[in-house]
Amino acid sequence: MKPRTDSRKFKTISRRELLKLTPVLALGAFAIPQLQKPLLKGGLAFSDWASARLFRSGHLAPTFADTDLTPFEKFPINDYDVDDPGVDFDKWTLTATGSVQKPGDYTLAQIQALPKVTQNTRHVCVEGWDVIGNFGGVRLSDFLKTIGADPTARFVTVECADDYYESLDMATAMHPQSLLCYEMYGQPLTREHGAPLRLSIPSKIGYKQAKYLTDLKVSHVLGKVGYWEDQGYSEFYGL
Amino acid sequence: MATRAIAIEDAKTGDITEAVYEHPFVVRLCHWMNAISLFVMVGSGLQIFRAFPSFGAKIPQKDLLNWPKAFALGGWLGGALQWHLTFMWIYIATGLVYIGYQIFSGNYKQVLFVRRDLPGIWPMVRHYFFFGSKPPVREAYNPLQKHAYTSVIGLGVLSVLTGLAIWKPVQFSWLAWMLGGFHLARVWHFLIMWAMLAFVFGHLVMVVLHGWNNFVSMFTGWKKDPEYPSE
């Protein structure tokens, strides 16, 4: 025998079951204009927090054979402003500032005196395309040691000749594949690809690979995050 | 599996209607959380795709699908990524709660397609698409329905795995490798979305065809006048 009830009681039961679903309405907060922005900002911040937890210092990005390389002429040139900001190579230096023991201007020759690393790694653009490039340079970690960067500092910020700016968390900056890159495909960087010095960070998204570097700052707190980050892109965007 | 059944006596006429408790609370909650988060993931995903609507090389770029902005969410790439990277957590959490609940409550038997359901597939296909007679209904879900629901849960899992491979091709390099590399993972992610949309389309058609009592059951859990024996 089935239990019996009358239609009025059944309505009450049904209504109670329906009301249990009210938590779903909480998602409606995303439709309220005043709440949408902070909620999405919070969601992105949570994603970045989780990304930082997922990052492993000892885990290497995949590397590729020379036959997998995207031909140099098909390696896209992306910038937010100009292809060539007209860097004067004779006067160029990288200015190191912040929590470092030896701040000052470092010439390209000084940087190139550090051990050279060459690697074929994937460059992933936030738009969705990807290429495999050959990058040569020095480990960012070696340069940070050279300038006596405070090992307890949390961020490395760079500024560029085209007024672009970017930042890296210290764990990523210290990663063995994170490069201060001065060569692509065995040739000195071309102006469009960021001569004389750019970042090549295989564990980060494309917009973190800043070109035409002029300044590098080590810091405990982050002021400006990055050009695209300040427009609303992910701050961490580790791959 | 014994389903909770009830006999409802109309307060005025005294007529008896039967009802079964078809959808447990957690299933209903997950269904609607998922309906919303899937809508957001697809909308924002299409906006993300608009930034590079191709699966070939960047140079020369051959656009595959310049999806109209009206059917995309987020306004621009950065905005769409905010939606996508926020709702993916809701989407994943909903999926985990659903799968966990189904396994531990035993309710998965209602929906999981098993070998025993195989012979029932063809009669249902004949009924739906070739005007065949309707096979007798014995359970809440017929074999074809079970197949569809089981498949779409599988697609949901794959949508997360392919998404993780695109989002973190370095940390989850093994996953990207299993999917044929970052580039192919992006293709799978896109195709899985269309497969899920095909399910949603069929699902909505069936909801309309099956009428009000069936629709209400996903809100209250109770289905009046079930087609199948309630005990």
Written overview of the protein:
The complex is a heterodimer of chains A (239) and B (231). By secondary structure, chain A is α+β, with helices and mostly antiparallel strands. Chain A has a single domain (62-231), classed as Alpha-Beta Complex (Sulfite Oxidase, Chain A, domain 2). Chain A contains five helices and eleven strands; from the N terminus they run E-H-H-E-E-H-E-E-H-E-E-H-E-E-E-E. Chain A is elongated. The relative contact order of chain B is 0.14. The radius of gyration of chain B is 21 Å and the shape is elongated. Chain B has 231 residues and is mainly α. The longest helix of chain B has 29 residues, at 77-105. Chain B is built from seven helices and three strands; from the N terminus they run ββαααααααβ. The interface between A and B is large, with 56 and 57 residues. Strand 1 (4-6) of chain A pairs parallel with strand 1 of chain B, so a sheet runs across the interface.
Topology diagram in text:
The complex is a heterodimer of chains A (239) and B (231).
Chain A (H helix, E strand, L loop, with lengths): L3 E3 H13 L13 H22 L39 E5 L5 E3 L1 H5 L3 E9 L5 E10 H7 L8 E6 L4 E5 H4 L5 E6 L2 E2 L9 E3 L12 E7 L20
Parallel strand pairs in A: 2-11
Antiparallel strand pairs in A: 2-3, 4-5, 5-8, 6-7, 6-11, 8-9, 8-10
Chain B lengths: L4 E5 L6 E6 L3 H26 L26 H29 L15 H9 L13 H25 L5 H6 L3 H29 L1 H9 L1 E3 L7
Antiparallel strand pairs in B: 1-2, 2-3
Helix pairs in contact in B: 1-2, 4-6
Descriptive keywords:
heterodimer, A: 239 residues, alpha+beta, Sulfite Oxidase, Chain A, domain 2, 5-stranded mixed β-sheet, 5-stranded antiparallel β-sheet, 5 helices, elongated, B: 231 residues, mainly alpha, Fumarate Reductase Cytochrome B subunit, 3-stranded antiparallel β-sheet, 7 helices, 3 strands, 6% strand
